[in-house]
From TrEMBL:
<dbReference type="InterPro" id="IPR005636">
    <property type="entry name" value="DTW"/>
</dbReference>
<comment type="similarity">
    <text>Belongs to the TDD superfamily. DTWD2 family.</text>
</comment>
<feature type="domain" description="DTW">
    <location>
        <begin position="2"/>
        <end position="187"/>
    </location>
</feature>
<keyword id="KW-0949">S-adenosyl-L-methionine</keyword>
<dbReference type="GO" id="GO:0016432">
    <property type="term" value="F:tRNA-uridine aminocarboxypropyltransferase activity"/>
</dbReference>
<protein>
    <recommendedName>
        <fullName>tRNA-uridine aminocarboxypropyltransferase</fullName>
        <ecNumber>2.5.1.25</ecNumber>
    </recommendedName>
</protein>
<dbReference type="InterPro" id="IPR039262">
    <property type="entry name" value="DTWD2/TAPT"/>
</dbReference>
<keyword id="KW-0808">Transferase</keyword>
<dbReference type="Pfam" id="PF03942">
    <property type="entry name" value="DTW"/>
</dbReference>
<dbReference type="GO" id="GO:0008033">
    <property type="term" value="P:tRNA processing"/>
</dbReference>
<keyword id="KW-0819">tRNA processing</keyword>
Length: 197
């Protein structure tokens, strides 16, 4: 018998995270473009981020209809949160008077790069990267490199820079609960054996 899912957070009803998801206002608009392979992932942090921000939108796909329009909402300037040689640290963008549209590709590094390849208008956006971010709290996946964060952590960190001194730490409450729940489900011994090396 299939487990009943919460229609909002897509977690099993017995592990619903909706009570922990805030509704945070932000001057920055966040647009998450999620690769389809991430939609049913047990640790879908992009969905939690989009639910927790009043000024956020999540769209699933590999190519996106009307992307040019999505990337140019009136009154906003768009930037892509994605590392690369031409990426500037996000702190350089924090002093701009006009609000930002922060575009965040969501998927494995390979899938995120594919989204950029399939959507040249996306790849053409100015890129920003995080500098001095705290280590990831994502204790269930091995980070591909230093400074690698989950989508929700990257969005939180970016917003804290762009909208300082406002705190967006409440966005991480459902994420922390999700991680703790996964560790509890696998059992401490299994977690210690497989994830703490």
């Amino acid at each position: 018998m299939p487990r009943i899912q919460c229609p909002r957070c897509h977690r099993p009803e017995t592990r619903c995270l909706c009570g922990l998801i805030p509704s945070l206002p932000s001057r920055t608009r966040v647009l998450v473009l999620q690769h389809p392979s991430e939609v049913n992932h047990a640790l879908n942090t992009a969905r939690l981020a989009a639910l927790g921000l009043a000024n956020a939108q999540l769209i699933v796909g590999e190519t996106f209809e009307g992307l040019e329009t999505l990337l140019n909402p009136p009154g906003y300037r768009a930037c892509l949160l994605f590392p690369g040689e031409e990426a500037q640290v996000i702190q350089a963008y924090a002093t701009d008077d006009r609000p930002w549209l922060l575009v965040v590709p969501d998927g494995t590094w390979r899938k995120a790069r594919k989204l950029l390849h399939l959507n040249p208008v996306l790849a053409a956006l100015p890129r920003v990267t995080l500098d001095g971010a705290p280590p990831s709290r994502y204790r269930l996946r091995k980070a591909p490199g230093p400074g690698a964060l989950s989508t929700i952590e990257a969005i939180t960190q970016a917003l804290e820079v762009l909208e300082a001194p406002t705190s967006f730490q409440a966005l991480l409450k459902p994420f922390d609960a999700l991680i703790e729940g996964q560790i509890a489900a696998m059992g401490e011994a299994v977690y210690q054996r497989n994830h703490t090396q």
